[in-house]
Design goal:
Elements: E1 25-31, H1 38-48, H2 69-74, E2 81-87, E3 90-96, H3 104-112, E4 116-122, H4 129-140, E5 145-150, H5 159-170, E6 178-183, E7 190-196, E8 201-202
Parallel strand pairs: 1-3, 1-4, 4-5
Antiparallel strand pairs: 2-3, 6-7, 7-8
């Protein structure tokens, strides 16, 4: 498990969140191709939950997940890491899996221990073939699945196109829960917030 002392600010600095029992533990595997943004998403979730004071950076080698010397040097995950956060009384273990094909064993180990899978898809690259296969494998065993679209703030990002790709690849049951609010076009395009379609709130 990653050392939380790097930026830890949870209930006590460096402390690992604890659940009262197995019923209060959920394991969520983040899966997707290398570079899709799984580790950066984990960092953002850890920061939002107050487990770290600020998100680390893959480029700077300061993420909780990629703490190994090889991962820092290569700028990508090579092993499975467990990153716990507390959501109310429930301990959620975010299983950050490597996306590079050479480390598929670690990714599959994460899926075997998961209660659900969060498919991370970049708004720049879209859905690749291996991600489609993994979705079908999870569907075959009845594992709950969701999709997180990352890098929506990039000038070349096409959120609508990626959502259409996800619906084509994963089925018509895929529906957005949030859509980005965008101002400007081209290089001046910027994401200024998101609309929650379920909550009917602007964030």
């Amino acid at each position: 498990m990653a050392d939380r002392n790097v930026n830890g600010t949870g209930a006590s600095a460096g402390a690992v969140p604890r659940a009262d029992g197995p019923r209060n533990i959920r394991n969520i595997a983040l899966v997707g191709p290398s570079g899709a943004g799984k580790t950066s998403l984990v960092e953002a979730l850890l920061a939002a939950a107050g487990e770290v004071s600020r998100p680390g950076s893959v480029e700077e080698g300061t993420t909780v997940s990629d703490h190994d010397e090889v991962e820092i040097r290569q700028g990508r995950s090579v092993d499975l890491t467990v990153n716990p956060v507390m959501v109310g009384d429930v301990k959620v273990n975010l299983l950050d899996t490597p996306g590079y094909a050479d480390f598929i064993g670690a990714m599959r180990a994460g899926l075997r221990g998961a209660d659900a899978a969060l498919f991370v898809v970049s708004a720049l690259e879209g859905v690749d073939g291996r991600t489609r296969v993994l979705w079908e494998e999870c569907a075959a065993v009845g594992m709950p699945r969701a999709v997180a679209v990352t890098r929506i703030d990039h000038p070349r990002a096409d959120y609508d196109e990626v959502v259409a790709q996800c619906r084509e690849a994963f089925g018509p049951g895929v529906h957005p829960a949030y859509v980005p609010a965008v101002e400007g076009t081209g290089d001046d395009r910027r994401v200024v917030g998101v609309w929650g379609l379920v909550s009917e709130r602007y964030y």
